[in-house]
Structures are given as structure tokens and as C-alpha cells.
Write a structure and sequence with these properties.
It comes from Podospora australis. This protein is mainly alpha-helical. It has twelve helices and three strands; from the N terminus they run H-E-E-H-H-E-H-H-H-H-H-H-H-H-H. It has a three-stranded mixed β-sheet with strand order 2-1-3. Helix 4 crosses helix 5, helix 5 runs antiparallel to helix 6 and helix 10 packs antiparallel against helix 12. The N and C termini lie far apart (about 65 Å).
Length: about 240
């Protein structure tokens, strides 16, 4: 029992989540060890002396996933990125982590998404990328992953251009949201060779990639440099 108490502590706190005020009973020591936000809530500057915290704007299901992560020692179950509900769940958990600055949780989720995009060839749909942008801080690492992957799909296979079905959606999204910075980030991923999927198309002259090079020769055109796109995106 002594070992249990040293790990989890004796004090239990209560967190009410969502408009339904779903109740969660947690070991204060465990949750505070994983999150500076909860540490400040129960010990710090906005200390909850009564051991009660309300997160009425959050989703109880997302908080339940957070609690599972806390008690699992900071690990998460594998996600099947072909299943929309699982993707929705893991991304909602990431947004929760971003909101409350739980870096350990963010750093647990990001490698999972990276592995899915690189090793499993998972392509995030436009709607998901928009959710990421809407629910994370500017410059967040999670924005870079889907942008890099979509940029790869848009620019890599010019002959087939299999991702073209969603290209119109991207154009509309970038225009309506004045997301020039997003467009620049995607293009930088391609032309600066920062994509983990393809590092040879750098926009410094004729493309080194065989497919692009052949296309340039057959059509008598050259892919514009990144500076052209940056200028166009800022207009």
C-alpha cells in the first residue's frame, strides 16, 4: 500500500467536464505530474482549495481519453488512421493538449501522426487540416505534418495527380480564409526539400525529379520557383 500511495498519492480531486458536468475522480498527484495546467490549478496561482475543477467547455469523451493517457503512464493505444472516428478522437485529444499546454501529450501524439503519414501513406482530408488550423496555436507542429503530406500529394506525382479531387477545396479554403501563410508553408515544404517523403525538388532550377523533369521538357515549361509562389500568395 505504501508503494501505491507514493506513486498515486492520497488526495483525490474532482473534475467536472462539459455542459453535462460529467464527474471525474482523479489522484491529484498523478494528474498534476503530467500537466502543468492541473498543477497550477490545484497547487499554484489559481489554486482550487476545495479540490474541484470545472472544465465545462470541454468534451467529456476527450477528457476521458486524457485520463486514460495519464494513468497509462503517458502512452496511447495505436490508432487506425483509416477509421475516421479514431482519427477524430486522437486529434481532439491533441487539441485538448494544445489548449491546456500539455506538451508531454502533444509529443506523444505527433510521432503517431508522423508515422501514419510517412510509413502508412495516410493523407489527411481537407476538413481535418482545417480543424487542425482552427484548433491549434499558430506555428504548431501538428499543422506542419498534414501540410507537408498534402503538399507531397499535390506536387509529387504530376502525371496522375491523384489528389486533384480535393484541389478545388484547397483553393477555396486558402482564398476564403486568406490562408496565404498556409499556402507558403506547403510550397516551402516542396521547394526547400523539407518533406520527409521527397528531398530532391528544390525549385532552384529545372526539377531534379525524373517525372517533373520529363514533364518540363515535354511541355516546354519549368516549374516556378518558391519565390514566385510566395509573391502570388501574398497578393
Amino acid at each position: 500500500m505504501e508503494g501505491f500511495n507514493s506513486r498515486f498519492g492520497n488526495r483525490i480531486v474532482t473534475v467536472y467536464v462539459g455542459s453535462v458536468r460529467q464527474e471525474f475522480k482523479l489522484h491529484e498527484k498523478v494528474v498534476c505530474r503530467k500537466s502543468d495546467f492541473f498543477n497550477r490549478a490545484f497547487y499554484g496561482e489559481f489554486k482550487e482549495n476545495n479540490g474541484i475543477l470545472e472544465l465545462l467547455e470541454d468534451d467529456p469523451k476527450v477528457f476521458e481519453s486524457f485520463v486514460a493517457w495519464v494513468y497509462a503512464g503517458g502512452s496511447l493505444k495505436r490508432i487506425d488512421f483509416t477509421k475516421e472516428d479514431e482519427v477524430h478522437r486522437i486529434m481532439s485529444l491533441y487539441f485538448f493538449a494544445d489548449k491546456y499546454v500539455i506538451k508531454r501529450l502533444e509529443n506523444t501524439i505527433i510521432p503517431m501522426v508522423y508515422a501514419a503519414t510517412v510509413k502508412k501513406n495516410w493523407v489527411p482530408p481537407l476538413a481535418l487540416v482545417q480543424r487542425v488550423i482552427d484548433n491549434t496555436s499558430p506555428g504548431d507542429d501538428m499543422v506542419k505534418l498534414p501540410c507537408n503530406r498534402v503538399a507531397w500529394c499535390l506536387f509529387d506525382d504530376t502525371d496522375n495527380f491523384w489528389y486533384q479531387g480535393d484541389l478545388g477545396g484547397w483553393r477555396t479554403f486558402i482564398k476564403e480564409n486568406r490562408a496565404g501563410d498556409l499556402a507558403i508553408q506547403m510550397l516551402d515544404s516542396v521547394f526547400e526539400g523539407s518533406l520527409p517523403f521527397h528531398a530532391s525538388c528544390r525549385g532552384t532550377g529545372p526539377c531534379e525529379r525524373p517525372k517533373h523533369s520529363a514533364l518540363e521538357k515535354s511541355r516546354g515549361v519549368q516549374f516556378p520557383s518558391k519565390h514566385y509562389f510566395k509573391k502570388a500568395a501574398r497578393k
